[in-house]
Amino acid sequence: MSKRFKSILTPIIAVLLGIIVGTIIMLVSGYNPVAAFTALWNGAFGEVYYLGEVVRQFTPYILAGLAVAFAFRVGLFNIGVEGQFLVGWLAAVWVGVAFDLPRVIHLPLAILAAIVAGALWAFIPGLLKARFRVHEVIVTIMMNYVALHVSNYLIRNVITNHGDNSGPIHKSATLRSPWLESITDYSRLHWGILLAIISCFIMWFLLERTTRGFELRSVGFNQHAAQYAGMNVNKNIILSMVISGAFAGLAGAMEGLGTFEYAAVKGGFSGVGFDGIAVALLGGNTALGVFFSAILFGVLKVGALNMPLEAGVPNELVDIIIALIVFFVASSYFIRVFLDRISKKEVK
Amino acid sequence: MEYVIEMLNIRKEFNGFVANDNITLQLKKGEIHALLGENGAGKSTLMNVLFGLYQPEQGEIRVKGKPVNISNPNIANDLGIGMVHQHFMLVDTFTVTENIILGREITSAGKIDIKKAEQQVREISERYGLAVDPQAKISDISVGMQQRVEILKTLYRGAEILIFDEPSAVLTPQEIKELIQIMKTLIKEGKSIILITHKLKEIMEVSDRCTVIRKGKGIGTVNVSETNPNELASLMVGREVVFKTDKKEGTPKQEVLEIKDLVVKDPRGVTVVNGLNLTVRAGEIVGIAGVDGNGQSEFIEAITGLRKAESGSVKLNGKELVNHTPRQITDSGVAHIPQDRHKHGLVLNFPIGENMVLQTYNKRPFSKNGILNFSEIYKKAKTLISEFDVRTPSEYTLARALSGGNQQKAIIGREIDRNPDLLIAAQPTRGLDVGAIEFIHKRLIEQRDHGKGVLLVSFELDEIMNVSDRIAVIYEGRIVAIVNPKETTEQELGLLMAGSNRKEAGEQSHV
């Protein structure tokens, strides 16, 4: 068994194990697993509308996953994707409502605002890490809360006068397209998916093909050797957080300019940033892996909505199945040991 | 004659690769038996067979004349075989006693009886002359002490036969002397020892007999009293080995490196390099001799830009370089073979090919406009790999998978290929076998003959005496004497390194 084949097989087995254990849980709690999984399937692929919603759902997942994966490849844990996502969302919507410009300028400007906002939000933990060796996990977690409450404050007091919703963005800043909506039976599918795919390519190219990526990977694997080789370790730490945050901010633009076209006061986190951690983990922190695992998460999330309707299964159970899959991926070590054992037997 | 261990005609294969082929090793009771071989010759495989980690395809193992089947390490333990690993298997945050009893705890009513355990540890350590403090934490004691704990661990488990895997690799010269004393005491107490090493001097000093293996094959067993280091080396390598590296008289020219009043502090803020002055000329090798911990590491780190210098001047070809970045220093023509190849020298998770361009990835032809050119990178890697005899399955193999000697050759190839004016080599041969050492010494001398300046730091006096054109003795962060290797002796150097001649040397330099 080749190494590559194993690294593909491992998440697949993890997913299967998650489904098997999910089945057992459904059986124990008295639901029909066949009906439930059929409902899940129909809810994701049954109609073209659902298909459009699946794509819409996994678009921000791709970007949030890339954000986590990018930082991870450079040896950093960006737990603050959620916060960077929220400030990106707000920045995009703000530009969307505050200006009235031709679409060719307005839309790119709003997207750029989201990228810059996410990047700046991640710059702070990057700087603290590089300068004072403050651990980025603590800073990014705290920055999530700051992002949540600051953006709520801005929506209430700056963008609106004590309102709880920014109001819709100008049509010139939207990512939505009547054509995409019409071919998917009026789902909320928008052009963001193209940006997400381009981002996957950018991440791969940046890390694997450029001198900058070579430095980032070197710093990620061995800071001492990177320093010895004349690379600026601190600069690369800050840069990788900034790039990671840029991906997260762009994910926010997907919601702000695509799915919702507004920003509202939130009682809690959206969860997209945290799901991004799971997406990155399942995707093995590579661009292509993140792409596929985001699709899986999108399918599960959207398909789950159909489970209570069609099979009477509470969608909390779907969250449990997703959690189980992540659990099995995180413990993929034993799957790998198992595969190693099989391949050893083959040799004999 | 009674043998405690006999390994007869052992053969071990891994997927068609023969690691051990017909090797016989017979250990007499009460002897120190050396197992000699190059890096990768199959010494570790053979010992892992004895220790029950591998099963041999052919051959027989007898313990005290009885054939045994050692299918796992527990059986080896029960048979009284204990291993002192090269990389210590200790829990840093535990005490000496806790580490020794780990897995064999003495309990009373479910509680570890630490008093009783400490008492036992004390008894064993007194009996074998292994002075340790049973209550000290592992993280607080020296490497030499940690090794004693490893030895005590095997003795506590009732080992009669001790396997020492490269025990002196991590020790200072003083600690090596103590270790040799310990081994002699163990023999007196009736233990038998297998000593895995490639240091010929140690074999000559302590061993009774020596079994040599080369490329997986058993070459034979010799009585150490009837042989000499030259014969052992040629048995091991399979050809004549030149110890005294051949070199013609050097022709030093202009000054390449000029260091004045350099002061460097260590991370705790202690001044460890204290007004150091030194010059290296083109076409000469200057060796820095000194006991570990006299500021050598910080000195090298400061002149290569890895550590900040408090004050002083470091000039390369007349250009001031002190406190410049590593990149600026590298680009000015300094190459650096770092002391710790895993920490600084390589990105172990990169292919060896990408490690070959660790400093030059941003220059043509390896990249253009920030885009890497992998075909050029691997073309360069391929040439360096063949030119410097780096044994690796391919240039795409991860650096991690290479043996230490081959990793070092890769680093040396990379550094020399950059065609530097000054080559700094910090302990370039640490942990390597004589074949690799010879290769590296030749390369250093070759650089000198090409008119480069070479600065060599080593704790091995032999190496310093052999390779250098001038020897600078470092003591407490200063160069206390400069001597000519042809006119000095190991004794004199030893005294200078211990600081005893310091006053005299100081007076001389003021005249």
Structure overview:
The complex is a heterodimer of chains A (348) and B (511). Chain A is an all-alpha fold. Chain A is built from 16 helices and no strands. Chain A has helices at residues 3-28, 33-46, 48-73, 81-98, 103-132, 136-159, 178-183, 192-209, 211-221, 223-228, 233-259, 272-282, 287-304, 306-311, 316-330, 332-347. The model of chain A has no long low-confidence stretch (mean pLDDT 90). Chain B folds into 3 domains: 3-237, P-loop containing nucleotide triphosphate hydrolases (Rossmann fold, 3-Layer(aba) Sandwich), CATH 3.40.50.300; 242-333 and 420-511, Rossmann fold; 346-419, no CATH class. Chain B is 33% helix and 27% strand. In chain B, the strands form 6 sheets. A 6-stranded mixed sheet of chain B has the order 6-9-10-3-11-12, with helices on both faces. A 6-stranded mixed sheet of chain B has the order 18-21-22-15-23-24, sandwiched between helices. Chain B is globular. The model of chain B is unreliable at 505-511 (pLDDT under 50). The A-B interface holds A 209-215, 217-218, 221-222, 224-232, 347 and B 15, 304, 306, 325-331, 336, 338, 343-350, 354, 358-359, 361-362, 367, 370-372.
What value does the average pLDDT of chain B take? 88
Shape descriptor of chain B: globular
The level of helicity of chain B is 25-40%
Distinct helical segment count of chain A: 16
User: How much beta of chain B, percentage-wise?
Assistant: 25-35%
Quick overview of this protein structure:
Chain A has 348 residues and is mostly helical.
Task: Outline the fold blueprint.
The complex is a heterodimer of chains A (348) and B (511).
Chain A: H1 3-28, H2 33-46, H3 48-73, H4 81-98, H5 103-132, H6 136-159, H7 178-183, H8 192-209, H9 211-221, H10 223-228, H11 233-259, H12 272-282, H13 287-304, H14 306-311, H15 316-330, H16 332-347
Helix pairs in contact in A: 1-15, 1-16, 2-3, 2-13, 3-8, 3-11, 3-12, 3-13, 4-5, 4-6, 4-11, 4-12, 5-6, 5-11, 8-9, 8-13, 12-13
Chain B: E1 3-14, E2 17-28, E3 32-36, H1 43-50, E4 58-63, E5 66-68, H2 73-78, E6 81-84, H3 96-101, E7 107-108, E8 111-112, H4 114-127, H5 143-156, E9 161-165, H6 173-188, E10 192-197, H7 200-206, E11 209-214, E12 217-223, H8 229-237, E13 255-265, E14 271-281, E15 284-289, H9 296-303, E16 309-316, E17 319-320, H10 326-331, E18 334-337, H11 341-345, H12 352-355, E19 367-368, E20 371-372, H13 374-387, H14 404-417, E21 422-426, H15 434-449, E22 453-458, H16 461-467, E23 470-475, E24 478-483, H17 490-497, H18 502-510
Parallel strand pairs in B: 3-10, 3-11, 6-9, 9-10, 15-22, 15-23, 18-21, 21-22
Antiparallel strand pairs in B: 1-2, 1-4, 4-5, 7-8, 11-12, 13-14, 13-16, 16-17, 19-20, 23-24
